[in-house]
Amino acid sequence: MVHEPGGAVSKTLEGSVVKRAKVNMAPGKHRLITYIHSKGVEAFVTSVAKATPMEIVEVERHGIDSIFLKDLSKFMDIPAVRIFDIVGIPKATAEKKVAAKERISGAGGQAALGLARLLAIAKSIIENSTAAEAKDFDVAKWLGQWIERPQPVLGGRKPADLIGTPTGLDMVARVLGAIESGAYQ
User: Fold this and answer.
1) Residue pLDDT, tens place only, 149-180
2) End-to-end Cα separation, the chain, in angstroms
3) Confidence (pLDDT) at 69
4) Are strands 17-19 and 64-65 parallel, antiparallel or unpaired?
5) What per-residue confidence (pLDDT) applies to 130?
6) Which of 37, 56, 121, 130 has CA 20 to 30 A from 104's CA?
7) Distance, CA of 51 to CA of 9 (rounded, Å)
8) In sequence order, what are the residues at sequence separation of 6 or more whose Cβ sits closer than 8 angstroms to the Cβ of residue 25?
9) At a CB cut-off of 8 Å and minimum separation 6, what does 39 contact?
10) Where do the structural domains in the chain lie, given as residue ranges?
11) Are 94 and 148 in contact (CB under 8 A)?
12) Of 18, 60, 67, residue with least CA distance to 38
């Protein structure tokens, strides 16, 4: 969905009417990145990877469509209940928001966005790899398994247990980025 200045009212792909708030950015940079269920997790991850810092700020302010958590669960092969736990949202709250087609905002929304950012980093690592195995590598499933394994560089903690805070997410992103450079395996 493209964000237009002036608080325009428009319809989403699903047909629901949404009032869009004005975003103060440089000319030509008027878009709000949103998760669109019909396009899938990979399209959203790609949008997040290409986003400017100001676009990420706007996503953080507006929150993430709750269905993203369910779709992410399937995409990463992690039970939905565990995804809810990772982002710090009680199961009942998450299920209620999904049923009502509401957004996840605050710390939970930021953690969900963080998972998308981690997927983008992992995807980039594989895209930059020259290894033959990278061709058919399931990045999302690998990341889903990796975040559940204790990592010595994180003091023996699982990355999944740190994603719920901005500092923890930053730590996990740095470790993930270090894997590409070979600094950490």
Assistant:
1) 999 999 999 999 999 999 999 999 999 988 87
2) 38
3) 96
4) unpaired
5) 76
6) 121
7) 23
8) 54
9) none
10) 71-181
11) no
12) 67
Distance, in Å, from the CA atom of 120 to the CA atom of 48, rounded to the nearest integer, reads 7
pLDDT above 70: residue 79: yes
Please say if the pLDDT value at position 4 is more than 70: no
Q: Which helix (H) or strand (E) holds 144?
A: helix 139-146
Structure tokens at 82: 């565990």
pLDDT computed for residue 128 by the predictor: 83
Q: Indicate left, alpha or beta for 40 from its phi (over 0: left) and psi (-120 to 50: alpha).
A: left
* 184: CB partners within 8 A, 6+ apart: 153, 175, 178
> Would you state the structure tokens that stand for residue 2, as one six-digit string?
């493209």
CB atoms within 10 A of CB 28: 6
CA distances from 48 to 44, 106, 121 (A): 6, 18, 10
